[in-house]
Write a structure and sequence with these properties.
Blueprint: E1 3-8, H1 15-27, E2 32-38, H2 52-61, E3 66-70, H3 72-75, H4 79-93, E4 98-103, H5 108-120, H6 122-134, H7 139-150, H8 155-160, H9 164-178, E5 184-189, H10 199-207, H11 229-243, H12 257-265, H13 271-278, H14 285-296, H15 301-307, E6 315-321, H16 322-330, E7 337-338, H17 350-369, H18 376-379, E8 383-385
Protein backbone atom coordinates (compact mmCIF):
# COMPACT_ATOMS: atom_id res chain seq x y z
CA UNK A 1 0.00 0.00 0.00
CA UNK A 2 1.33 3.40 -1.00
CA UNK A 3 0.59 6.93 0.14
CA UNK A 4 0.21 9.24 -2.85
CA UNK A 5 0.06 13.04 -2.91
CA UNK A 6 -1.37 15.55 -5.35
CA UNK A 7 -0.40 19.24 -5.21
CA UNK A 8 -3.46 21.13 -6.37
CA UNK A 9 -5.45 24.34 -6.51
CA UNK A 10 -8.81 22.78 -7.50
CA UNK A 11 -9.84 26.23 -8.66
CA UNK A 12 -12.53 24.92 -9.01
CA UNK A 13 -12.54 21.14 -8.55
CA UNK A 14 -13.79 19.66 -11.83
CA UNK A 15 -14.15 16.39 -13.75
CA UNK A 16 -10.50 16.46 -14.82
CA UNK A 17 -9.42 16.45 -11.19
CA UNK A 18 -11.77 13.57 -10.45
CA UNK A 19 -10.22 11.69 -13.38
CA UNK A 20 -6.73 12.19 -11.91
CA UNK A 21 -7.83 10.84 -8.51
CA UNK A 22 -9.66 7.89 -10.08
CA UNK A 23 -6.56 7.04 -12.15
CA UNK A 24 -4.55 6.62 -8.96
CA UNK A 25 -7.21 4.58 -7.16
CA UNK A 26 -7.83 2.40 -10.23
CA UNK A 27 -4.18 1.36 -10.42
CA UNK A 28 -3.96 0.63 -6.69
CA UNK A 29 -7.27 0.03 -4.89
CA UNK A 30 -5.90 0.44 -1.36
CA UNK A 31 -3.87 3.56 -2.17
CA UNK A 32 -4.18 6.46 0.26
CA UNK A 33 -4.31 9.96 -1.15
CA UNK A 34 -3.11 13.24 0.34
CA UNK A 35 -4.05 16.53 -1.33
CA UNK A 36 -1.86 19.57 -0.70
CA UNK A 37 -4.33 22.32 -1.52
CA UNK A 38 -3.61 26.00 -2.18
CA UNK A 39 -5.31 28.06 0.51
CA UNK A 40 -6.93 31.41 -0.16
CA UNK A 41 -4.82 32.59 -3.14
CA UNK A 42 -3.47 30.71 -6.13
CA UNK A 43 -0.29 30.79 -8.16
CA UNK A 44 -1.55 33.19 -10.83
CA UNK A 45 -1.94 35.85 -8.12
CA UNK A 46 -5.71 35.64 -7.71
CA UNK A 47 -8.07 34.80 -4.84
CA UNK A 48 -9.33 31.23 -5.09
CA UNK A 49 -12.74 31.10 -6.76
CA UNK A 50 -14.20 29.05 -3.85
CA UNK A 51 -12.95 28.96 -0.27
CA UNK A 52 -10.50 26.29 0.86
CA UNK A 53 -13.03 24.40 2.99
CA UNK A 54 -15.50 24.01 0.12
CA UNK A 55 -12.71 22.80 -2.18
CA UNK A 56 -11.56 20.43 0.59
CA UNK A 57 -15.07 19.00 0.84
CA UNK A 58 -15.15 18.45 -2.93
CA UNK A 59 -11.82 16.61 -2.78
CA UNK A 60 -12.87 14.35 0.10
CA UNK A 61 -16.17 13.49 -1.58
CA UNK A 62 -14.29 12.45 -4.72
CA UNK A 63 -11.59 10.15 -3.38
CA UNK A 64 -9.11 12.15 -1.29
CA UNK A 65 -8.29 10.91 2.22
CA UNK A 66 -6.42 13.84 3.73
CA UNK A 67 -6.30 17.49 2.65
CA UNK A 68 -3.50 19.74 3.89
CA UNK A 69 -3.03 23.44 3.19
CA UNK A 70 -0.46 24.96 0.86
CA UNK A 71 -0.26 28.40 2.51
CA UNK A 72 -0.09 31.80 0.83
CA UNK A 73 3.68 32.02 1.38
CA UNK A 74 4.08 29.22 -1.18
CA UNK A 75 0.83 29.20 -3.17
CA UNK A 76 1.26 32.76 -4.50
CA UNK A 77 4.81 32.34 -5.84
CA UNK A 78 6.40 31.58 -9.18
CA UNK A 79 6.65 27.93 -10.23
CA UNK A 80 10.06 27.40 -8.60
CA UNK A 81 9.05 28.51 -5.11
CA UNK A 82 5.52 27.15 -5.42
CA UNK A 83 7.02 23.71 -6.11
CA UNK A 84 9.75 23.99 -3.46
CA UNK A 85 7.24 25.03 -0.80
CA UNK A 86 4.91 22.16 -1.68
CA UNK A 87 7.64 19.52 -1.78
CA UNK A 88 9.09 20.86 1.49
CA UNK A 89 5.79 20.15 3.25
CA UNK A 90 5.32 16.71 1.68
CA UNK A 91 8.93 15.73 2.39
CA UNK A 92 8.70 16.65 6.07
CA UNK A 93 5.51 14.62 6.54
CA UNK A 94 7.71 11.54 6.08
CA UNK A 95 4.74 9.46 4.89
CA UNK A 96 4.49 10.29 1.16
CA UNK A 97 5.74 7.62 -1.25
CA UNK A 98 4.89 9.28 -4.53
CA UNK A 99 3.51 12.53 -5.92
CA UNK A 100 1.19 12.37 -8.91
CA UNK A 101 0.53 15.21 -11.31
CA UNK A 102 -1.31 15.66 -14.56
CA UNK A 103 0.78 16.91 -17.45
CA UNK A 104 0.42 17.53 -21.16
CA UNK A 105 3.10 14.97 -22.06
CA UNK A 106 2.38 12.31 -19.44
CA UNK A 107 5.97 11.08 -19.93
CA UNK A 108 7.72 10.98 -16.55
CA UNK A 109 10.98 9.60 -17.99
CA UNK A 110 11.27 12.45 -20.48
CA UNK A 111 10.55 14.93 -17.69
CA UNK A 112 13.26 13.39 -15.48
CA UNK A 113 15.73 13.56 -18.37
CA UNK A 114 14.87 17.18 -19.17
CA UNK A 115 15.14 18.24 -15.53
CA UNK A 116 18.60 16.72 -15.24
CA UNK A 117 19.84 18.29 -18.46
CA UNK A 118 18.46 21.74 -17.68
CA UNK A 119 20.20 21.68 -14.29
CA UNK A 120 23.58 21.12 -15.98
CA UNK A 121 23.23 24.31 -18.08
CA UNK A 122 21.40 26.35 -15.43
CA UNK A 123 23.90 29.23 -15.08
CA UNK A 124 24.43 29.68 -18.83
CA UNK A 125 20.70 29.20 -19.43
CA UNK A 126 19.69 32.04 -17.06
CA UNK A 127 22.37 34.32 -18.51
CA UNK A 128 21.00 33.79 -22.02
CA UNK A 129 17.41 34.39 -20.89
CA UNK A 130 18.43 37.71 -19.33
CA UNK A 131 20.27 38.67 -22.52
CA UNK A 132 17.17 38.06 -24.65
CA UNK A 133 14.88 39.79 -22.14
CA UNK A 134 17.10 42.88 -22.29
CA UNK A 135 16.75 42.77 -26.07
CA UNK A 136 12.98 43.17 -25.71
CA UNK A 137 11.73 39.59 -26.11
CA UNK A 138 9.03 38.12 -23.86
CA UNK A 139 10.04 35.69 -21.11
CA UNK A 140 8.65 32.62 -22.91
CA UNK A 141 10.32 33.62 -26.19
CA UNK A 142 13.60 34.36 -24.35
CA UNK A 143 13.52 30.99 -22.58
CA UNK A 144 12.87 29.12 -25.82
CA UNK A 145 15.62 30.99 -27.65
CA UNK A 146 18.06 30.26 -24.80
CA UNK A 147 17.23 26.53 -24.93
CA UNK A 148 17.64 26.52 -28.71
CA UNK A 149 20.97 28.35 -28.52
CA UNK A 150 22.36 25.88 -25.98
CA UNK A 151 22.19 23.23 -28.70
CA UNK A 152 21.18 20.54 -26.22
CA UNK A 153 17.42 20.46 -26.69
CA UNK A 154 15.27 19.39 -29.63
CA UNK A 155 12.38 21.47 -30.97
CA UNK A 156 9.87 18.99 -29.50
CA UNK A 157 11.51 19.28 -26.07
CA UNK A 158 11.41 23.06 -26.23
CA UNK A 159 7.74 22.88 -27.26
CA UNK A 160 7.05 20.69 -24.21
CA UNK A 161 8.38 23.51 -22.03
CA UNK A 162 5.59 25.74 -23.33
CA UNK A 163 3.07 23.49 -21.55
CA UNK A 164 2.24 24.93 -18.08
CA UNK A 165 1.69 21.59 -16.33
CA UNK A 166 4.90 20.13 -17.74
CA UNK A 167 6.80 23.23 -16.56
CA UNK A 168 5.43 22.74 -13.04
CA UNK A 169 6.21 19.02 -13.21
CA UNK A 170 9.87 19.85 -13.94
CA UNK A 171 9.91 22.14 -10.89
CA UNK A 172 8.50 19.36 -8.68
CA UNK A 173 11.22 16.98 -9.87
CA UNK A 174 13.87 19.65 -9.28
CA UNK A 175 12.50 20.40 -5.78
CA UNK A 176 12.56 16.70 -4.83
CA UNK A 177 16.23 16.65 -5.77
CA UNK A 178 16.83 19.95 -3.90
CA UNK A 179 15.54 18.47 -0.62
CA UNK A 180 17.22 15.11 -1.30
CA UNK A 181 13.83 13.50 -0.81
CA UNK A 182 12.92 9.86 -1.39
CA UNK A 183 9.53 10.84 -2.84
CA UNK A 184 8.97 9.41 -6.32
CA UNK A 185 7.06 11.10 -9.16
CA UNK A 186 4.34 9.87 -11.47
CA UNK A 187 2.86 11.74 -14.41
CA UNK A 188 -0.63 11.07 -15.81
CA UNK A 189 -1.47 12.48 -19.22
CA UNK A 190 -4.28 15.03 -19.03
CA UNK A 191 -7.57 13.79 -20.44
CA UNK A 192 -8.94 16.16 -23.08
CA UNK A 193 -12.57 15.43 -24.02
CA UNK A 194 -15.92 17.17 -24.26
CA UNK A 195 -16.73 16.28 -20.64
CA UNK A 196 -13.68 18.23 -19.44
CA UNK A 197 -13.10 21.95 -19.45
CA UNK A 198 -10.12 23.85 -18.03
CA UNK A 199 -10.43 25.60 -14.67
CA UNK A 200 -9.68 28.91 -16.42
CA UNK A 201 -12.71 28.51 -18.71
CA UNK A 202 -14.90 27.39 -15.80
CA UNK A 203 -14.01 30.49 -13.79
CA UNK A 204 -14.73 32.69 -16.79
CA UNK A 205 -18.13 31.03 -17.21
CA UNK A 206 -18.93 31.56 -13.53
CA UNK A 207 -18.27 35.29 -13.78
CA UNK A 208 -20.38 35.42 -16.96
CA UNK A 209 -23.26 33.62 -15.20
CA UNK A 210 -23.00 30.59 -17.48
CA UNK A 211 -23.74 27.11 -16.19
CA UNK A 212 -20.76 24.81 -15.50
CA UNK A 213 -22.66 21.95 -13.83
CA UNK A 214 -21.89 19.43 -16.60
CA UNK A 215 -18.17 19.84 -15.89
CA UNK A 216 -18.39 19.36 -12.11
CA UNK A 217 -18.82 16.09 -10.16
CA UNK A 218 -20.91 17.87 -7.50
CA UNK A 219 -23.78 20.32 -7.15
CA UNK A 220 -22.84 23.96 -6.84
CA UNK A 221 -24.64 26.14 -4.31
CA UNK A 222 -26.29 28.95 -6.32
CA UNK A 223 -25.75 31.36 -3.41
CA UNK A 224 -21.97 30.88 -3.29
CA UNK A 225 -19.97 34.12 -3.25
CA UNK A 226 -17.27 34.82 -5.82
CA UNK A 227 -14.35 37.21 -5.21
CA UNK A 228 -15.23 40.74 -6.31
CA UNK A 229 -12.50 42.19 -8.52
CA UNK A 230 -13.93 45.70 -8.32
CA UNK A 231 -13.30 45.61 -4.56
CA UNK A 232 -9.82 44.20 -5.15
CA UNK A 233 -9.09 47.00 -7.61
CA UNK A 234 -10.18 49.59 -5.02
CA UNK A 235 -7.77 48.04 -2.49
CA UNK A 236 -4.96 48.11 -5.05
CA UNK A 237 -5.57 51.80 -5.75
CA UNK A 238 -5.64 52.57 -2.04
CA UNK A 239 -2.35 50.72 -1.46
CA UNK A 240 -0.38 52.18 -4.36
CA UNK A 241 -1.88 55.66 -4.74
CA UNK A 242 -2.79 56.70 -1.20
CA UNK A 243 -0.75 54.69 1.30
CA UNK A 244 2.19 54.52 -1.14
CA UNK A 245 4.31 52.55 1.36
CA UNK A 246 5.13 49.67 -0.99
CA UNK A 247 8.19 47.57 -0.27
CA UNK A 248 10.28 45.80 -2.89
CA UNK A 249 9.22 42.16 -3.15
CA UNK A 250 11.55 39.64 -4.66
CA UNK A 251 11.48 37.56 -6.78
CA UNK A 252 8.67 39.18 -8.84
CA UNK A 253 9.65 42.85 -8.50
CA UNK A 254 12.07 44.81 -10.69
CA UNK A 255 13.23 48.43 -10.96
CA UNK A 256 10.50 50.80 -12.07
CA UNK A 257 7.64 48.30 -11.82
CA UNK A 258 5.91 49.94 -8.84
CA UNK A 259 5.95 53.30 -10.65
CA UNK A 260 4.54 51.60 -13.73
CA UNK A 261 1.73 50.18 -11.58
CA UNK A 262 0.99 53.60 -10.07
CA UNK A 263 0.99 55.35 -13.43
CA UNK A 264 -1.26 52.72 -15.00
CA UNK A 265 -3.74 52.90 -12.11
CA UNK A 266 -4.36 56.54 -13.03
CA UNK A 267 -5.45 55.59 -16.56
CA UNK A 268 -8.30 53.14 -15.91
CA UNK A 269 -11.13 52.17 -13.55
CA UNK A 270 -11.23 48.50 -14.52
CA UNK A 271 -9.10 45.72 -12.99
CA UNK A 272 -8.70 43.64 -16.15
CA UNK A 273 -7.88 46.72 -18.22
CA UNK A 274 -5.29 47.69 -15.61
CA UNK A 275 -3.58 44.28 -15.77
CA UNK A 276 -3.67 44.37 -19.57
CA UNK A 277 -1.96 47.77 -19.64
CA UNK A 278 0.52 47.23 -16.78
CA UNK A 279 2.02 43.91 -17.84
CA UNK A 280 4.69 43.81 -20.55
CA UNK A 281 7.09 41.40 -22.24
CA UNK A 282 9.32 40.94 -19.19
CA UNK A 283 6.45 40.84 -16.70
CA UNK A 284 3.67 38.33 -17.36
CA UNK A 285 0.16 38.97 -16.10
CA UNK A 286 0.49 36.22 -13.48
CA UNK A 287 3.80 37.62 -12.22
CA UNK A 288 2.30 41.11 -12.00
CA UNK A 289 -0.73 39.88 -10.04
CA UNK A 290 1.45 37.83 -7.68
CA UNK A 291 3.61 40.87 -6.99
CA UNK A 292 0.57 43.03 -6.24
CA UNK A 293 -0.96 40.44 -3.87
CA UNK A 294 2.31 40.02 -1.98
CA UNK A 295 2.78 43.80 -1.69
CA UNK A 296 -0.82 44.44 -0.61
CA UNK A 297 -0.46 41.83 2.13
CA UNK A 298 3.07 43.03 2.99
CA UNK A 299 4.37 39.50 2.71
CA UNK A 300 8.02 38.97 3.64
CA UNK A 301 9.79 36.70 1.13
CA UNK A 302 12.42 35.84 3.75
CA UNK A 303 9.73 33.66 5.34
CA UNK A 304 9.75 31.51 2.22
CA UNK A 305 13.51 31.39 1.82
CA UNK A 306 14.18 30.64 5.49
CA UNK A 307 11.65 27.82 5.60
CA UNK A 308 13.64 25.69 3.16
CA UNK A 309 16.55 25.39 5.60
CA UNK A 310 14.36 24.31 8.54
CA UNK A 311 13.62 20.79 9.70
CA UNK A 312 10.02 21.64 10.54
CA UNK A 313 7.29 22.56 8.07
CA UNK A 314 3.90 24.25 8.04
CA UNK A 315 1.44 21.35 8.29
CA UNK A 316 -2.19 22.37 8.55
CA UNK A 317 -5.09 19.95 8.25
CA UNK A 318 -8.06 21.20 6.19
CA UNK A 319 -10.01 17.94 6.13
CA UNK A 320 -9.87 14.15 6.37
CA UNK A 321 -11.81 10.89 6.33
CA UNK A 322 -11.19 7.79 8.48
CA UNK A 323 -8.14 6.78 6.42
CA UNK A 324 -6.95 10.38 6.53
CA UNK A 325 -7.15 10.29 10.32
CA UNK A 326 -4.76 7.33 10.28
CA UNK A 327 -2.42 9.24 7.97
CA UNK A 328 -2.36 12.17 10.41
CA UNK A 329 -1.28 9.79 13.16
CA UNK A 330 1.61 8.60 10.97
CA UNK A 331 3.08 12.05 10.33
CA UNK A 332 6.55 12.59 11.76
CA UNK A 333 6.09 13.24 15.49
CA UNK A 334 8.63 16.09 15.38
CA UNK A 335 6.25 18.19 13.30
CA UNK A 336 3.71 20.68 14.63
CA UNK A 337 0.39 19.61 13.10
CA UNK A 338 -2.19 22.39 13.04
CA UNK A 339 -5.73 21.04 13.32
CA UNK A 340 -7.05 24.03 15.23
CA UNK A 341 -5.81 27.37 13.91
CA UNK A 342 -5.74 29.02 17.33
CA UNK A 343 -2.97 26.55 18.21
CA UNK A 344 -0.51 28.60 16.14
CA UNK A 345 -0.02 30.69 19.29
CA UNK A 346 1.64 27.65 20.89
CA UNK A 347 4.08 27.06 18.04
CA UNK A 348 7.60 27.99 19.08
CA UNK A 349 9.00 28.17 15.55
CA UNK A 350 8.59 31.86 14.59
CA UNK A 351 8.95 31.21 10.86
CA UNK A 352 6.12 28.66 10.80
CA UNK A 353 4.02 31.05 12.87
CA UNK A 354 4.71 33.81 10.33
CA UNK A 355 3.65 31.49 7.49
CA UNK A 356 0.39 30.85 9.36
CA UNK A 357 -0.20 34.56 9.97
CA UNK A 358 0.47 35.35 6.30
CA UNK A 359 -2.17 32.79 5.31
CA UNK A 360 -4.57 34.38 7.82
CA UNK A 361 -4.11 37.80 6.18
CA UNK A 362 -4.63 36.31 2.73
CA UNK A 363 -7.70 34.43 3.92
CA UNK A 364 -9.16 37.60 5.43
CA UNK A 365 -8.52 39.53 2.22
CA UNK A 366 -10.38 36.88 0.25
CA UNK A 367 -13.25 36.99 2.77
CA UNK A 368 -13.51 40.76 2.34
CA UNK A 369 -13.64 40.33 -1.45
CA UNK A 370 -16.44 37.77 -1.05
CA UNK A 371 -18.45 39.72 1.52
CA UNK A 372 -17.83 37.08 4.20
CA UNK A 373 -16.84 37.27 7.86
CA UNK A 374 -13.14 37.61 8.50
CA UNK A 375 -11.07 35.33 10.75
CA UNK A 376 -12.79 32.25 9.35
CA UNK A 377 -9.57 30.33 9.95
CA UNK A 378 -10.24 30.60 13.68
CA UNK A 379 -13.94 29.86 13.27
CA UNK A 380 -13.85 26.90 10.87
CA UNK A 381 -12.94 23.34 11.84
CA UNK A 382 -11.37 20.81 9.47
CA UNK A 383 -13.87 19.12 7.15
CA UNK A 384 -14.60 15.55 8.33
CA UNK A 385 -15.94 12.74 6.15
CA UNK A 386 -16.10 9.94 8.71
Amino acid sequence: MKNYAIIAEFNPFHNGHKYLIESIKKNEADAKLIILLSGSFVQRGEPAIFDKWFRTKCALENGADLVLELPFSYSCQNSEFFAKGAIKILHELNIVDEIVFGSESGNIYQLYDLSKRISTVYTEFNYLIEEYLNSGFSFIKSRNMALKRSGQFTDSEIELLNSPNDILALEYISAIDYFNSDIKSQSIKRNISKSYKSATKLRKNLYNNKSIKSYLPYKLNPDIYLPDYKSLFDIIKYKYLIVENVKNYRPDDEDGLVNRIRNTLLTTDDFNDFIEKAHHKRITKARLKRLICNQILEHDFDIVYNSFAQKNAYIRVLGFNSDGQKLINQIDSKQNIITKFSNIKKIKDENIKNIALSELKASNLRSILCGEKINRDFLTSPVKQI
